[in-house]
Amino acid sequence: MFALIGSEFAKLKRTLVPLVCIAAPLCAATFTLLFVLRLRGGEQWLNLLGEGAATWAFFLLPMSITALTILLAQIEHAPKMWTHLLSLPAPRSTIFAAKVVVAFGLTGVMSVIGYALIYAALWLGEFVKPGVQLVGDAQFDELALAFALMAAGAGLMIVVQLWAALRFRGFAIPLVMGIVGTFAALALASSVRGVLLPWFIPTYVLTLQQPSSQIAIWFGAVGGVVAAVAMVFHLGRQERFD
Amino acid sequence: MNWAISTEGLTRRFGDRTVVDGVSLSVPRGGVYGFLGPNGAGKTTTIRMLLGLIRPSSGSIQVLGRAMPRQRLAIARCVGAMVETPSLYDHLTARENLDQPRRVRGLPTSEIERVLSIVDLTGDSRRRVGGFSLGMRQRLGIARALLGRPELLILDEPTNGLDPAGIRDMRQLIRDLPSRDATSIMISSHLLAEVEQTASHVGLMFQGKLLAQSALTDFLALAGGRIEIGVRSAQKARQVLSEFSDGITLVDAERLSVTPHPKRTPDAATINARLVGAGLVVYEITSRPATLEDVFMKLTTDVA
Lengths: 242, 304
Prior knowledge:
The structure holds 2 protein chains of 2 kinds. Chain A is mostly helical. Chain A has helices at residues 2-11, 17-37, 45-74, 81-86, 92-128, 140-153, 155-167, 172-187, 211-237, and strands at residues 42-44, 133-135. Helices cover 36% and strands 29% of the residues of chain B. Chain B contains 11 helices and 15 strands. Chain B has helices at 43-50, 72-78, 94-105, 110-118, 134-146, 164-181, 192-198, 216-221, 234-241, 268-277, 292-303; strands spanning 3-14, 17-23, 26-28, 32-36, 58-63, 66-68, 79-83, 152-156, 184-189, 201-206, 209-215, 226-231, 247-252, 255-259, 282-288. Chain B has a 6-stranded mixed β-sheet, with helices on both faces. In chain B, strands 1, 2, 3, 5 and 6 form a 5-stranded antiparallel β-sheet that branches. Chain B has a 4-stranded antiparallel β-sheet with strand order 13-14-12-15, covered by helices on one side.
């Protein structure tokens, strides 16, 4: 399994995956910076961090997961690639499980980069915009926890997107799912039914003080694990004719 | 006999269509088995079942003495395969493409150098595969199949897309492997002349069925060769020779082809004497051994 995970990461060399992992957090940081540059005076760290986290949770996290999972799957959708992969001396389930691990890993990496770049953007904004002053507690622990929970809550979304991307040779279906899911999540903002939509679940981190939000995050994380097991079982048993 | 591959009544259906129908293969160890058949005969589906990629509808498979699919992992460790055109990651170099299966097979990195040198790609090992010619890709596919010195190599149409020099190199490689690494090889192909030059044993698939299989020499004996005769009047010569064979065909006004009958057809000298005795001018008698194409045409025409 470790060999498969290692080879999955090795395959990403010279693909767009590293670029997505940098570009998505950089976008979140850029939006945050632009917000700071509009300020005229002091502002609470808490509010600005909230802006950055919301941009990440509502838009950039689901879109980047859509892109990442499509890229991960498209590597294998070349003609005869499944024939090669599935004839390797490794259990078929581990081949798909390795993909899940890589998708989770990349989401984690993006989250860490996003966390760091949002702070960098805030400090840069304070530095370049005269008169702007960030006040209050910098909330390092709180934002780290928020990003970690968003990544965990995105588990179900990651697996659903990856499942579709691996199942279908073309990228149109997972792409449409990702776009529709992301915008449906925006439409569902503040709805209690959002928990049913995997793309919406990470946004519950923004209202974590509510018990229902904590349940939603748990649902996303545990649901991701359960869906991953189902995906590995389904794809592992499927006969592929590429 | 100790078989590299042995199947019993192997059948695969897709809906109500039977693509592979009761195939009982016997691929000997240490030889090159040519798996012949036209496109759509069921060769690739059979190979997919041998590799555990798809399940048979019925029948059993033994590969290297182990049951497929129950012992797929143990079998996969000892088998290298290339199914049709090799699938390669274009964005990676040749070496990186080999590194992925090497890791999964738990082999040392020196194995990459070994297989690259066998297929003569050492000098291009750090180039991206996206810029490789079809022949280079095919060779890299073979190199990947050779990782770990497999006991059995299954190659589906290995000469597809190769130029004449590439085909010659591939032929030599396939001939050398059984003695070099004690590898048993199964080559699937529709290029009969190519298989005839490399295989020690042959099996012929047609419309999902295995029509025949045996050692190449026995297989060629199924068609029995031909005697080609150049004579001034082929029509008259046919009448003269009609008692010797039922298989006499006019090639043109001055040429006949005689399919020898095992008991009735005499040797070339006797045929010549008979024709000359009938007042015919004979200017050529050639005995041609059977080719795979002859056997193929004979067997498939019988079925069709």
